[in-house]
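# step 3/5: fold
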Amino acid sequence: MDTEVVSERLDVGSDALRESTALLSATEREQAGRLAFARDRRRFIVARARLRQLLATRLGVRPAAIELTSGPYGKPMLAPRFRATELRFNVSHSADLAVYAFARGREIGVDVEAIRPIPDADKISARFFSAGEAAAYAALDAGSRPIAFVNCWTRKEAFLKALGGGLNYPLDRIEVSLAPDAPATIVRVAGTPGDACGWRLGSFTPARGFVGAVVVEQSLQ
């Protein structure tokens, strides 16, 4: 397996929700219980249960046997006893859609967002996009900007999640393509051209009205 991306709906019925809840650890059930809204509890429960099932299939164990931990900045990962498998994964969700990305021996990050108008998109792009991205965004017509904004945001977010350092890495040091008709590419990372940065970017449509991006390490650093 090089990389693999799986999409799942989180809007399930009551029976599936009960089955999902039964797969969670006590800590995960406590986490779900602390969420104020039933919609958010359902999404958390179903997303986490499905993650356990997907990992279990790839590791040849029961979903209940999966042990998860996190890196210094919160990136989820398998507990030490599974590290020898070299299975890396990442998760993202937007509304009732979750996406899961898997790779062996390579760091990976994934992000998904619903395409929608962002009231402050122009201000956000000017503040957080690189100069090249901001110029490309400003040159687009109004109808193309919502998808271009989401393209840029998901691609940057997937890269940050692959790095595992969260927003500690400045957003404007990563430059990606964003135009709706342009291939998904990393233009540069800091002063390094994208084709020499050691990471590969892909874009995908997990469901109608959504945009996804996945970034995977090309070789171990």
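# step 4/5: annotate
The chain has two domains: 10-85, 111-217.
# step 5/5: archive (pending)
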